[in-house]
Structures are given as structure tokens and as C-alpha cells.
Amino acid sequence: MKIAILYICTGKYNQFFKAFYESCEKYFMKDIADVEYFVFTDDMSLSDSVKVHLYRKECKGFPLDSLFRFDMFLSIKEELKRFDYLYFFNANMLFVAPVGKEFLPKDQALAAVLHPGYFNKPPFLFPYDRNKQSTAYIPPFKTKYKYYMGSLNGGTCEEYLKLIQECSRNIHYDYDRGYVALFHDESHLNKYLFEHDCLGLSPAYAYPEGGKLPFAPKIIIRDKVKLDPYFDKGRDHSLIGKIKKLIGIFWRAIRWYF
């Protein structure tokens, strides 16, 4: 079995790769699969391992590096076709326990991690894109709602390539018309998975560092701010900022039904 890991780190995010790679080598699919890494970065000295393939990608900043990530994957589509499974991991993820075959979709061809902030919330609070003009729009009054985090997703090579092709196409269609989905690529991912079968991976595979969830963590999401204050820029920690955020959440929830 061959698994390709897709990974993006440019600028300040380059500092995460070494720990991610070492933890993955220690815990991911040991004696089960051959794993190779396809890394998009502006640091071509990031690794000299034969298992790590580096592709130069200049940092465009947020949200463009996130929004157009599917384009990066498509740029090496032919190289990825020799693998059985493809998985994307966010830069600041870290394996802390063994991960084996339970991670692979069986009856479904795709897999994504359930968002640790919404796995126990009612669907009307899910941060779906509510803009009916966007291809990422998800309608109300349906069933089987789930909200997936954009930080970890994948599946069989054939089906995941279909996912990234459609998401890329929809993102560009929206962008050309002046629309950017609420949570960028994550919104488009959720729209695609809303319409396709998917193995919902436990939030144990995206456990926030320092969190208190009813799961034993398998993969943690490292607190970027603890490592570098740079990542705290633009965040509003004031009481007014928190109130505005709550109002926005409930406004989007109400607006979904009208």
C-alpha cells in the first residue's frame, strides 16, 4: 500500500515540518504502508530525505495560500496517480499516538476529520457558507449534516483527485465573480462532502493542543501562537471582539433559514 501526504508550508509555517515529519514517521501506518511526502514550500532546504518531494511555492499570504491549495495538488496530479491513498495535513499537525488502518475509508472512498469545535453542536451553528451565490452554499432543511475541518482530509487516489478537481473549479468560478467562501477551501470541502459519502474521522485526529475533549488524542493541532507570536496577528481577544464573534455566529444561523 502506498500513501502520499500532501503538505503546505511557506514563510513562518516552514518551522512546523520537521516535527510533523518525525512524528508521522514514528506513528503513521508503521509496517502497513509506504508513505511519501509532497511538500509545497519556499524553503528548498527543508528536507534531504528521499521520501520528501519538495515543490517551490512562494508565500502569497492568507487567504490565498489556503484558498487555492487544491491548485497546488493538481499541479502534481500525474505523480500522485501512483499512490493508493492521498491525504492532506495542515502544517501545524503532530502525531502523538499510533494511527493505523482505522484511518482509511472502507465503504466510503473519502475521509475527513470532524471539526473538534462543532462535532457536538446542532447543525444550525455549523459555519457553512450561507451565500446562495457561492458554489460552496449548503441549503437548510436537509439531513445528515456534518462539519469537517479543512486541516485533514483525503481518500482513495481516484476519488480524492475528483474532490480536488471539483473544489478547485468551484473556487475559481466564485473568485472570478468576486466571491470568496466564508471559510475559504474548508467551505468548499464541506460542500463536496455534503454531496458525497465520507468517513468522518474522530476529532481525536485533530485534537486542539491544550483542549479538553472526550477523546484520547491521536493527532494534535499545535497552538501556533505558543510557537511564534506572529500567528496571533489580526486576532481580537477583547470582550467586544468576542461579543461580535458570537453575534456573527447567531446571525448566520438565523439567516440560514431565510
| Helix/strand structural class | alpha/beta
Tell me what portion of residues adopts beta-strand conformation: 15-25%
Topology order in helix (H) and strand (E) letters? EHEEHHHEEEEHHEEEHH
Radius of gyration: 18 Å
User: Percent range for helical residues?
Assistant: 25-40%
Unreliable residue runs: none
DSSP strand tally: 10
Taken from the alpha-carbon principal axes, the silhouette is globular
Number of helices: 8
- Spatial arrangement of strands, main beta sheet: 3-2-1-4-7-6-8
N-to-C span? 48 Å
Oligomer: single chain
- Taking all residues together, what is the mean pLDDT? 92
Describe this entry's structure for a reader:
With 258 residues, this protein is of the alpha/beta class. Helix content is 30%, strand content 20%. Helix 5 packs across helix 6 (184-194).
Give structural attributes.
about 260 residues; alpha/beta; seven-stranded mixed beta sheet; 8 helices; 10 strands
TL;DR?
The protein has eight helices and ten strands. It is of the alpha/beta class.
